[in-house]
Amino acid sequence: MGNPGYKYFKGEDWIDPTPPPSDLPAVDEVGSTGAPLKSASFFIGSVCQEYNEDFMLCKDESRDPKHCLREGRKVTRCAMDALQKIQSKCQREFQMHWQCLDIKNQEFGRCREPEKAYNECLFSAFGWKKAVPGAPENRPQIHERIPLTD
Amino acid sequence: MSNPITQDLPPKGGFANIRYERRLPQRGPGGVAMFLICGGIMAYGWYQVHRGLDERRELEREKIWARIHLTPMLIAEADRDEFRRKCAAVERERKIMEGVPGWEAGKSVYLGSRYAPDIIANVPIHQQPGFKDK
């Protein structure tokens, strides 16, 4: 913790250990790092689309964090559920893909080979299909193009 | 003097024609062919350029949508943390200002109802009584 070599700016000082108000329902945090989240992002986006859109519409009403706690809990639970589903059926492919993203600067274009196996596994397990919204429809999507870009 | 004056005259029948036109052997493709070849090279190059631009645009689109799909989850998490910290800060404020009559802990400094985030981060050690004197 803290910035190395800078003892006057301690990260520990910014921690607030106070628990949230007890009248709020408890919800676990996703607690995932960037690469697994990015790897799962399109599936979280498609599975949790209703909750996500509901939450963003709520945020559009008011920026107050208190205003959308209920919708936010649903969003978090849905994302965790999607991640757990991926872990349960396609753990190896998921791990190959997000570890590739981790070492390749989180660029999808440089992890097409693991992604292919990962997408196929998820499609056969749950019927989830990765689709980039707004992509031109007369051409295959970027992750389905042959040859896959390295 | 039987030698008559002779004038310098052309030979009988006149001089042969001087070939002043440029007569180089025909080498390589002609102008139209050159134009077409260069045009073909250019067309292939532009085709590749546009393929690359298209791929880059689609990669960018993919990246942006990956972030868009994650945004609600990240905002929800940050909101819960912000709300928790705000509640803790209000509680600290209430404890500090206990003895002051008419003080409302957590009351907005603005008159409007629009939400305004705290300008100063709610850090516990900064919000202890006597912190500034240390």
From TrEMBL, chain A:
<keyword id="KW-0249">Electron transport</keyword>
<comment type="similarity">
    <text>Belongs to the complex I NDUFA8 subunit family.</text>
</comment>
<keyword id="KW-0679">Respiratory chain</keyword>
<keyword id="KW-0472">Membrane</keyword>
<keyword id="KW-0813">Transport</keyword>
<comment type="function">
    <text>Accessory subunit of the mitochondrial membrane respiratory chain NADH dehydrogenase (Complex I), that is believed not to be involved in catalysis. Complex I functions in the transfer of electrons from NADH to the respiratory chain. The immediate electron acceptor for the enzyme is believed to be ubiquinone.</text>
</comment>
<dbReference type="InterPro" id="IPR016680">
    <property type="entry name" value="NDUFA8"/>
</dbReference>
<keyword id="KW-0496">Mitochondrion</keyword>
<keyword id="KW-0999">Mitochondrion inner membrane</keyword>
<protein>
    <recommendedName>
        <fullName>NADH-ubiquinone oxidoreductase</fullName>
    </recommendedName>
</protein>
<dbReference type="GO" id="GO:0006120">
    <property type="term" value="P:mitochondrial electron transport, NADH to ubiquinone"/>
</dbReference>
<keyword id="KW-1015">Disulfide bond</keyword>
<keyword id="KW-0677">Repeat</keyword>
<dbReference type="GO" id="GO:0005743">
    <property type="term" value="C:mitochondrial inner membrane"/>
</dbReference>
From TrEMBL, chain B:
<keyword id="KW-0472">Membrane</keyword>
<keyword id="KW-0679">Respiratory chain</keyword>
<keyword id="KW-0496">Mitochondrion</keyword>
<feature type="transmembrane region" description="Helical">
    <location>
        <begin position="30"/>
        <end position="47"/>
    </location>
</feature>
<keyword id="KW-0812">Transmembrane</keyword>
<keyword id="KW-0249">Electron transport</keyword>
<dbReference type="GO" id="GO:0005743">
    <property type="term" value="C:mitochondrial inner membrane"/>
</dbReference>
<dbReference type="InterPro" id="IPR009346">
    <property type="entry name" value="GRIM-19"/>
</dbReference>
<protein>
    <recommendedName>
        <fullName>NADH dehydrogenase [ubiquinone] 1 alpha subcomplex subunit 13</fullName>
    </recommendedName>
</protein>
<keyword id="KW-0999">Mitochondrion inner membrane</keyword>
<dbReference type="GO" id="GO:0045271">
    <property type="term" value="C:respiratory chain complex I"/>
</dbReference>
<keyword id="KW-0813">Transport</keyword>
<keyword id="KW-1133">Transmembrane helix</keyword>
<dbReference type="Pfam" id="PF06212">
    <property type="entry name" value="GRIM-19"/>
</dbReference>
<comment type="function">
    <text>Complex I functions in the transfer of electrons from NADH to the respiratory chain. Accessory subunit of the mitochondrial membrane respiratory chain NADH dehydrogenase (Complex I), that is believed not to be involved in catalysis.</text>
</comment>
<comment type="similarity">
    <text>Belongs to the complex I NDUFA13 subunit family.</text>
</comment>
